[in-house]
Specification:
149 residues; two-stranded antiparallel sheet; globular
């Protein structure tokens, strides 16, 4: 099996296509790229795990790389967009077309109402920190069910 791109490669591509955005919005877009890649391409887009943090789905490594930044630009992210193949690029572009114009808060609210994050947060109070992984299976099952509607 070939080596998967990293979340940093995906983030860098998103930022080069969409431009500067908040760190929170970038996290949500990276999450939706992974989710829809599992449905449309039947494979993960990147190797890092996504955790169900209090403010929504987060790739911890990406968060720590730009911790303290409100706005993130392409030059702030060490990633290589050319690591993405044509299928991955098509998926990211589709995600950007649908979700890219939404606000960070809108995206955060959306993830808080979707089963993968809700189930991974089970037993935690709102705002309580937690590090449960949002599994590929949970994402594929939930977003795959949306595709059929």
């Amino acid at each position: 099996m070939p080596t998967l791109p990293s979340a940093f490669d995906v983030a860098k591509y998103i930022l080069t296509q969409h431009g500067e955005m908040t760190a929170m919005k970038l996290q949500k877009l990276v999450y939706y790229c992974q989710a829809w890649s599992l449905v449309w391409d039947e494979r993960p887009m990147f190797s890092e795990k996504i955790k169900a943090w209090a403010n929504g789905p987060v790739v911890g490594e990406l968060y720590h790389a730009h911790k303290g930044r409100f706005l993130v630009r392409a030059q702030h992210v060490t990633g290589n967009p050319s690591a993405l193949d044509s299928k991955a690029i098509a998926t990211v572009n589709a995600v950007l077309k649908f979700y890219g114009g939404k606000t960070a808060q809108w995206l955060s609210d959306l993830t808080h109402n979707e089963r993968p994050w809700v189930e991974a947060r089970e037993g935690l109070k709102p705002g309580e920190s937690g590090g449960s992984v949002i599994t590929h299976a949970a994402m594929a099952e939930y977003y795959g069910s949306l595709k059929k509607n």
